[in-house]
Fold TBC1 domain family member 7.
Amino acid sequence: MSEDSQRNFRSVYYEKVGFRGVEEKKSLEILLKDDRLDIEKLCTFSQRFPLPSMYRILVWKVLLGILPPHQETHQEVMVHRKEQFYDIHHALQVMRFINDTTLQAEVYLHMHQLEMGKLSRSQTYTLEPEDELFLAIASTIEEIVDDEIDCYWVTRNFVHHLDTKFRDCYATMQKGFEHYLNLEDSRLVAHLKTCNALERLPYDFWFRKCFAGCLPASSLQRVWDKLVSGSCKILVFVAVEIMLTFKMKINALNTSESINEFLEKVPLDNTDPIVNKAIDLWHKHCGVPAHSV
């Protein structure tokens, strides 16, 4: 039996006895033993499988450029990241932009603004859309990342990742959403068009904020594994699956306003199945990336 056949056989066996993901975890551990981490293989792994929670932050930090591929430099680099964090944090305290009562997400936002040279001279200012995006992402990452230093750098680099890699994809994502939803349920699309709702769905909430504030972090982190590793299209299929999951409710609503109001506050008691089905849909329509350890 070939090595791949043995691995497939073991994967099926582990799934049957309740240890789904054991083989995937072992494969990731092999990748993480390399002195120089292979970014392409880590991306491919993250596209194919959910990252084990114990390794998620490390992989995110490497893929987002917070840590370099060379593992022997990780400790030294994080010392510098920590120093930067406290230098910026202290400067904001001295300028009285933050204090002990400032919400942590707002602290991270002001740190990012200061670092980028965009800190407002006024402490009372209207949030720009990019500020609201940062706060939404930061609030979700706070629930995923325990350490405040890691939380800041992951948020900062995640937002930068979205801006540099996916900025020009949003119009395409909206068209893709309509296309795939029509393939899965053309009657639902017809209903949305009848209600003049198709063009007014909460696309910014879904695609620009990446469902931050819409889905709980415990479910969303598996979607963001795909984003961090380079695919924004997963967001399209999350949106499609939300529509399919709640189509009976949506079909009972007759205005774009009522549909939007519902979709911005979807029930949170079954979001894991939504994410599972969205990932399955994504693989169904887009295929599964090749991966070898």
